[in-house]
Amino acid sequence: MTPILIQVLTQPKQIQHLSLKDWDLLIRQARHANLLARLGYVLENNGLSCDIPIAPLRHIQSAQTYAQQFENTLKWEIKCIAKALNNLNIPIIYLKGTAYFILGSIAAQGRVFSDIDILVNKDQLEQVEAALRRAGWAQHEMDAYDQKYYRQWMHESPPMQHVVRGTSIDVHHNILPTTNEACPDAAKLLAQAEKTPSLDGWVLSTSDRILHSACHLFHEGELDNGLRDLSDLDLLLQEAAKKDPAFWQTILARANDLGLQRSLYYAMHYCGLILKTPIPQGIHKQYLAFAPNRFVLAALDILFLKALIPNHHTCDGYLTKFARWFLFVRSHWLKMPIHLLLPHLIRKGLKNFTTES
Amino acid sequence: MERILLNVGPFSINLETPLKPVIESVKMLYAEQFFLTDSTANGFFDFHIKIDNPSQLRRWYKPQVQFYFDGKLPFKPLPFSQAYPFFEWGLNWCIATQVFNYLLIHSAVVERNGFALILSGQPGAGKSTLCAALVNRGWRLLSDEMAVVDLQTNWLIPIVRPVSLKNESIQIIKNFAPDVVLGESFYDTAKGTVSHMKPGMDSVLKAKQNSPCKWIILPRFVKGADIVLKELPKTEAVLKLAENSFNYAILSSQGFLSLCELVDASYCYELEYSNLDEAIALLADLPV
C-alpha cells in the first residue's frame, strides 16, 4: 500500500478525510522523511491549512518554525561566504538547497540541510579554499590517501567547517565525481550559470539545477532523504514548466548536451510513478529514449520503488533494507571504475576494521 | 510488549516496552489520572517511544537498554538497570528537540496563590531539591524539568512528571518529607544516583491550570552558607534564562519577546541557601 505521506503529497485534498489516527501516522512519516515542514507548505499552498486538526498542526508549525530559523542562519552564512570570497572576484555558484533558497524557489520551503555547496572553476579551487581558510573555515586532518581520494577522484574538496560557527561548506568543481562515467564537462555548467538578483551570488541554469538534483539522487548511495530529494525534483520540474513553456524541450536538449540523459530519465520516471508529477504526453515519448534496457529498468523499479518511500518503520517492507543496501552498492559501482573501486573499498574496510579494534 | 498511553501536560505519549522495571516505575510514579486507554485517547500521539533491549543477545550478555524515538536511535544504549531514567531523559530530549510552539526553559516551576515561580539554573545548582521541598510545603508542582511558556499568553503550562532527585538530594528530601513516594534509586548513571519523587495529588488535580509567572529565581545550594536573596537585574535575568532555554534560538524574535515579557512581569532574584526550611520561609514572603 502507498504510504500515507505519499498519498497526501500527491493528493493533498485527502487530508479532509483523515482521522486523528491517520494524522498520527502522517506526521510520523513526514518527520522521519524530513518533510514535515514541507508538508505544511504543500497544504498551505493548496489552501488546506484550515483543515489541519490542532494536534498535528502543532508539529507542522514547530517544524516550520525550525525551518524559518534555519533560513535566517542560511542567509547569514551566505553573507559570510560572500564576504570571505568577495576579493577573488570570481563567480561563486551556489548549488542545491542554497540555490533554491536564494532564488525563492518553492523547493526551498521547509527544506533544512547541513552543508552549503558551492561550485567554482577547478583552476580557482585552491584560491577559494585559501580564502575560506583565512576567514575561519578549516579542513579536518586527513591522511595522504583520503587527500588523494578527494583531490584526484572526487568532484569536491574535502569538506570545510567553520571553526566558530560549526557550519559546513563543500567546494565543488563538478557535480559528479571525475571518476564517474557520466561526469559532465564542468565548463558547460559554468558557461550557463546565472547571476542572482539577490544576495550577489550565482546559480546554475534552471535545467542544470534540476539535472544536478537528479544525478545527485540517482548516483548517491545514501537514500535516507530519498523521498525528500524526489519531492525536490517534483517541485522543481513543476515550477520550471510553469515559468517557461519551452522548459521540457530545453532540459531534454541539455541532458543530451551534458550526457546526463539517464539521470533525467530516472528523475522523470520516478517523479511520475511515485509523486504523479504531470509530464506532457509529447515529452513522455521523447524522454523514453533515455531509458536503460528493460531488464535494468525492471530491476531498478523494484529497488527504487522500495527505497524512495518515507524513511519510517511503518513503510518498510521485507525488501526495503535490501533495496537501500543494494542501491548503496550500486552508487559505488557508478562512482568509479572497478580497478579503482576494489582497492578503495578494501582500504576503507581495513581502516574501519583497525580503528574499531 | 506493553503499551502505556500517557497524557502529561500538553503532550500525549505512546510508550511501548516489554521491560517490567519500566512499566512498574511508570505506573508507580505517574498519577493514574494521566494514563489514557485506547478509548480515551484520540488516536494522535505527540511522541512514540519504545524502551527495549537493543538485541536479543543483549538480553543475556551485559544487558543493555535502548531508547527508540519512533524507530530511530538518538542515543547509544545504556546499562539495563537505567531503563526507566532512560525513558525520562529520552522524553525530555524529544520535547526539547521537537517542540517549537512553546518557549521551553530548563527549570523547575512551582505555584502558590495563583502565581508561578521559575527556578532556573545550571544542573547541580539545587533547583530540583528546592522544588521538591517547596511542593512538600504547600506549593503546587508545574514542572521539575522545564518551564513550558505559552507564546500567546506568556503563562506557564504544567507538565506534571516525576521530580528527578540526584545524589545527596535523595536523602535530604527523604528526611525533609518522610511521606513522599520515591521510586527506585538508579546508581552510576551519567548524573550519579537518581531517584524520582511522585508528584502530590494537589499538583495532579490542577494539572490543566496554567499560571502567570511572578517570580524568577536562580538558586544555588552552598553548603553552610547563610541565606542570601539578591535582586537580579532584569537584563541579566533575560540572558540567564536564554542560556538555560532549550529552544530560544530557534524561536528567534518570538522567543526574545516572550522571554522579555516574562522577565518584565516578574521579580527576579539570585538565591544562595544551605537550609531548606530557611529558603522556604523566605520564599513564602516574596512580594506579590
Describe this structure in words.
The complex is a heterodimer of chains A (357) and B (288). Chain A is α/β, with parallel strands linked by helices and 357 residues long. Helix content of chain A is 59%, strand content 6%. Chain A is built from 16 helices and seven strands. In chain A, helix 9 crosses helix 11. Chain A is globular, with a radius of gyration of 21 Å. Chain A starts with a helix and ends with a helix. With 288 residues, chain B is of the alpha+beta class. Helices cover 30% and strands 33% of the residues of chain B. Chain B is built from eight helices and 17 strands. In chain B, strands 7, 8, 9, 10, 11, 15, 16 and 17 form an eight-stranded mixed β-sheet that branches. In chain B, helix 3 runs parallel beside helix 4 and helix 6 runs antiparallel to helix 7. The longest helix of chain B is centred in the last third of the chain and has 17 residues. The radius of gyration of chain B is 19 Å and the shape is globular. The mean pLDDT of chain B is 94. At the A-B interface, helix 2 and helix 4 of A face helix 7 of B.
Write the layout of secondary structure elements.
The complex is a heterodimer of chains A (357) and B (288).
Chain A: H1 4-10, H2 20-32, H3 36-45, H4 54-85, E1 93-94, H5 96-103, E2 115-119, H6 125-134, E3 137-139, H7 144-153, E4 160-162, E5 168-172, H8 186-191, E6 194-195, E7 202-203, H9 206-219, H10 226-243, H11 247-258, H12 261-275, H13 281-287, H14 294-307, H15 320-335, H16 338-356
Parallel strand pairs in A: 1-7, 2-5
Antiparallel strand pairs in A: 1-2, 3-4, 4-5, 6-7
Chain B: E1 2-8, E2 11-17, H1 20-29, E3 35-36, E4 47-52, E5 64-69, E6 78-79, H2 83-98, E7 102-112, E8 115-120, H3 127-135, E9 140-143, E10 146-150, E11 156-157, E12 163-166, H4 168-176, E13 182-189, E14 192-197, H5 201-205, E15 213-221, E16 228-231, H6 234-243, H7 248-264, E17 267-273, H8 276-284
Helix pairs in contact in B: 3-4, 6-7
